[in-house]
Structure formats: C-alpha cells, structure tokens
Design goal:
heterodimer; A: 75 residues; alpha+beta; four-stranded antiparallel β-sheet; 20% helix; 37% strand; elongated; B: 350 residues; alpha/beta; seven-stranded parallel β-sheet; two-stranded antiparallel sheet
C-alpha cells in the first residue's frame, strides 16, 4: 500500500469513485468533491484507478517538513 | 478615484464635502473622514461614470535600505510601510495554514480568530512555533509594552488552519483540505509558509494550480513561501518550491534588512517564478510557549508579510480581490535594484 493523491476532474462522481477505490483495496481517508481523494492504494491498483472516469492522475502523496524553529536555520 | 463628471461632482457638493477635482487625470479627492467617506463611496459607485472609489492612503518617502528594528517597529514593518497607512486590514479574512497557533499568546487577544485543525489527533494549539510566528507577522497586536509593532495588519479576522503537525510535518491531504476550508470560509487571502523543494525543470502540480485558479476566480489570493534551498554564497540558486511554483499562487522571496535578496531564497530558475518579495531575515514575531517572541528567517517569514500587506490593500478597496489584488501588489512593489529572478516585481509595500 502507498499513500496516494487521486486528482479528480471537476465533473467527477465522487461517491462512485470512492466506492471504486475501496473495491480495489484502497483506503479512503479524505474525499473532497471536484478536487481529490486522499488515502492509500495497493501498488497493483494504480493503473486501474488511473483509467477510471473522472480521475486526472494518481500519484504518491507528498509530505512537507519544516526544519526546527531555530533562528539560524531558514524556515 | 472617479471620473469627475460634473453631475457626479455636483452630487458630492450637495453633501457638503470638500472636493479637489483633478479633471485631466479623472480623479477627485473628497474629504469627510473615513466613516462618512464609506457611505459617500457607496453612493458614488452607483454612478456609471465612477470607475473606482477608495479611501486615501497616507504616503511616505521610501526610507532605506538598510532598515533596522527600532523600539516602535520591526524593520519589516518599516520597510513595507505597513504602519501609519490608516488601515489595519479591518474585516478582511486571512487564513494562515501552518502548525496552528498559541491561543494563549497575549498578542492575539485583540483579534477575532477562527481555528480548525486538519491534523488527526492534534488540537489547533501550536507546539512547534512556526505557525504562531507567521500569524504574528500577519496580525500581531499593534502595541505592547516594550515590544515593537511587528504585525502588518492587526485588524484582520484571522483564520488558523492547522495543517502541519506538532513536529512541523504535514500531509498533502491535510494541506489541501485546509486550503478548501479557507476558501469555503470566505477568506480573501490564504498564507502558506510551507513547501517542498523541486527539481529545476519540474512542472507545477495541476492539483494545486486548479485550486489556486478557482481561488482567484472567487476573489481569493493565495500566497506561498518560495523556498529556502538556495545558497548564493556559492552562486547556487535553487528553483522555487512547490506549491509556490504554481502560476496562480503568488510566490514570495525573502530579502534582508540591507535590501538584497536573502542568500537562501529560491529563485526563478527552471519552471517556477518569483512574483514578489518581502522581509525574511531576522524577523521578530510572536512565538509559541514560554519564549513568547523569537527572531526567525526564511521565505516562511516573508510570506505572511505579503499576506498582511494584501489585507491592508484589500481593506482599502472592495474591488481589490483575487487577481486584481495580485496585480495591485505587483504594480506597487519597489524594485530595490534586484533582479526579477530573485525578487520578482520587488519588495511588497503599502
């Protein structure tokens, strides 16, 4: 399983896509209409999800990390 | 600013206001004080001949660089001319998406605040400190005993979205949920002092770009830190990070008190752009916990300066929203002799 971002088209059917992802073994943690679905997906399901109507792209979810709040370290 | 059509000026005259008509320029300056001017402005905007009505700003000669902290203001407030404009951002909703806020900090007691956490299992309270610092730059209390003014727009309605956890880390899902929350709450400005490094020719992410385009269409300006991956001591300029590299997100670079670009500030190399710059070295602001205040540096510190300045401009004129606000900030920026790769249009000022 990998943490993923599924970028959705504006006219995508969110409810249907959530069900489809779960059928493919995915875990949906956050779903925002016309924006994206965030969660986890088995590696083998990536190509299938990419082919679903209303999906613009699927990629691994990125993380952001601040440095320590030290005055000598650019924030 | 109006077209001083005779009928319009006559209607103003009937309301007994002082008028200076500059007919060649299409401008009339009308006296009467802020509250009176608001109602008069609404009347004037009903005329087709009137292009724009806004309160008059006080203007000052550009001082410096170099700037320095004083007993009354930080160098960032001085450089951006944020004090003494007659505006404090009153009523403008500004979202700061970060590590949360220290709600017990004495310098936020004055301002309205709406909070939400998007980090599972954590309250909006700021443990790391970065979010409190950024919020302080936007709207820290204008005057405290023995503390210089450091908040750019103390009158804003602060919306705090906690999208980075107590260790300063964040997931994209939480960050994007915070962006959507701020948009749905009607925030006019969203400040994001966060990002990740990019490769020189890495394209922008269409997900952030589509959200930012929607925001501009809805009259919302998103500003983000350009990133800190450069080291100009070695002539290395790193590309603008993500999501600031999205064309519809205003990327903010950092300058120092000498007016020059900060060594670490990312630049417009490769595909990303720098749109504007702001103070980002030795920035005094609020801090979480017992320390209360701290000086930090980074484009994370420059970004909330621009958010606060955007609020001051937005408070001056209701039509300054979204793309119009973006354009206004860029048009008013001061070049300082830097190059667009490093500082974009220049130093954001009021």
């Amino acid at each position: 399983m990998k943490r993923v971002v599924v970028h959705l088209a504006r006219d995508s059917d969110l409810r249907t896509l959530v069900v489809e992802l779960q059928k493919l073994g995915g875990i949906v943690e956050r779903a925002i209409p016309s924006v994206g679905i965030f969660g986890a997906l088995p590696d083998a399901a990536f190509d299938r999800v990419r082919s679903l109507d209303g999906v613009k792209y699927v990629r691994e979810e990125g993380r952001y990390q601040l440095p320590p709040a030290d005055e000598k370290v650019p924030q | 600013m109006v077209t001083p059509d005779a009928s319009v000026l006559a209607s103003v005259a009937r309301s007994s206001h002082d008028i200076i008509g500059l007919e060649r320029l299409g401008i009339a300056i009308v006296g009467g004080g802020l509250e009176t001017s608001k109602s008069l402005g609404e009347q004037l905007m009903a005329h087709d001949e009137v292009a724009d009505v806004r309160p008059e700003f006080w203007m000052f000669a550009i001082q410096g660089p170099p700037w320095q902290d004083s007993a009354s203001t930080t160098w960032g407030i001085e450089a951006t001319r944020a004090a003494g404009t007659g505006h404090d951002g009153n009523g403008i909703k500004v979202a700061v998406l970060d590590t949360g806020i220290d709600r017990s900090h004495p310098d936020f007691n004055h301002s309205a605040m709406i909070t939400e956490t998007f980090v599972e299992g954590e309250t909006v309270d700021d443990v790391q400190g970065h979010g409190t610092h950024c919020a302080g730059t936007i709207c820290g209390r204008p005057s405290s005993a023995n503390v210089p003014r450091y908040g750019v727009a103390p009158g804003v309605i602060l919306h705090v979205g906690k999208v980075l956890n107590n260790h300063g880390a964040g997931r994209e899902g939480d960050i994007i949920a915070g962006m959507i929350w701020a948009m749905e709450r009607g925030c006019e400005i969203i400040s994001m002092s966060l990002g990740r490094g990019t490769m020189p020719n890495e394209p922008f992410d269409p997900l952030y770009e589509s959200i930012a385009q929607d925001a501009l269409d809805q009259g919302i300006l998103i500003v983000a830190a350009a990133g800190n991956d450069s080291d100009r001591r070695w002539n290395y300029v790193a590309p603008v990070g993500a999501p600031a590299n999205s064309p519809s997100i205003m990327a903010v670079a950092a300058i120092g008190a000498d007016g020059g670009v900060a060594s670490f500030s990312c630049g417009a190399v490769g595909t990303g752009q720098v749109d504007i710059s702001a103070p980002g070295v030795g920035i005094f602001s609020a801090f979480a916990g017992v320390q209360t205040y701290k000086k930090l540096m980074g484009t994370s510190m420059a970004c909330p300066h621009v958010a606060g300045l955007a609020a001051l401009h937005a408070a001056s004129a209701p039509q300054l929203r979204g793309q119009a606000l973006w354009d206004h900030l860029v048009q008013n920026a001061v070049g300082l002799g830097g190059i667009p790769r490093d500082i974009g249009a220049g130093l954001a000022v009021i």
